[in-house]
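Q: Here's a chain of 394 amino acids. Please give me its 3D structure as tokens.
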Amino acid sequence: MGTNIDFKELAQKYKSELLENVIPFWEKNSVDTEYGGFLTCLDREGKVFDTDKFIWLQGRQVWMFSKLYNEVEQNQNWLYIATVGANFLKKYGHDGNLNWYFSLTRDGKPLVQPYNIFSDCFATMAFGQLYKATGKEEYAEIAKNTFENILKRSENPKGKFNKLVPGNRPLKGFSLPMILCNLSLEIEHLLPAELVEKTIQDAIHEVMEIFYQPESGLILENVNPDGSFSDSFECRLLNPGHAIEAMWFIMDLAVRQNNNQLINKAVDILLRTVKYGWDEKYGGIFYFMDIKGYPPQQLEWDQKLWWVHIETLISLIKAYSLTRNQECLDWFRKVHDYTWSHFADPEFGEWFGYLNRQGEVLLPLKGGKWKGCFHVPRGLFQVWKTLEKIESAN
């Protein structure tokens, strides 16, 4: 990307990648016409290499196709795909009380218990967005009731499936407050206004006051219940991608509240995290880091992952759109160049997910247990729309 950015041309690049290379990959390869739901374990060319179904990825894909139907065009095939996934989830995805399993066999038999609250989060998003597309009250009820379950579980997300000994190191994790920043907006059309506002305020407080560490200007993945630091593997852990993703959620909430102070704080944390996480030797952003510089316990710490870079692009371009801070645009250009030259796959569509530190493709898969139809298309959509907004404002 040159020094002068043509925002209109760049918006078109993201749009065409989304609609011509990424979404067609999932339309063609992932819909399970035999059993329902989606097959997400896809190799580079889109061939299925495993048929297990992961509930959070099922929910994410229902959400994605519903979102495209609602906000890009009322493409009936997109609605059909979303409905295929939703019907499978509704029938097989939970235990009868809307506790959502982690994984199922291809034909819907549960494999892993509902220990992971993110299955519930993405089921909520899926049915909330599909309700917008269809107006079916059944979908609204599933989304609302699952969301209520999430709030009830928020203090102890894993519940009876928690393997830790209670009381000895009672840490709280960043992931759930972070996702509630986004989830509260995703289904606010289904919730009482006061519940939406309370959820938003609580989530902003957790992210920006409890997990944010003023001394370093960074966000930790785990803290003591009172927000204090515990010198342990878990509490020294930084996940730059998580913190960066959270900052565009916070910016969206700050815009809603017309809170420029919050926007500026989010942009400051974003820039600090991008600089801290950037690999000066090989380029790209590290997956995990230790805030004291010790060896992280995650052996994959130095890999470069698709979602980290795509979420960074969203956050940086939103930050530039809101503040016109040139440093945000400079970093956007740098991350854009790295991301498009390393993750995109013009030959077969969709993007690679996993690179080694040097930037070489580590796994040629396009989908698996952790990667589905979500971060790439959502990111392309978000950046496309934000670039269009910048162009129209110029």
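Q: Can you summarize the key feature?
A: The two ends are 19 Å apart (CA to CA).
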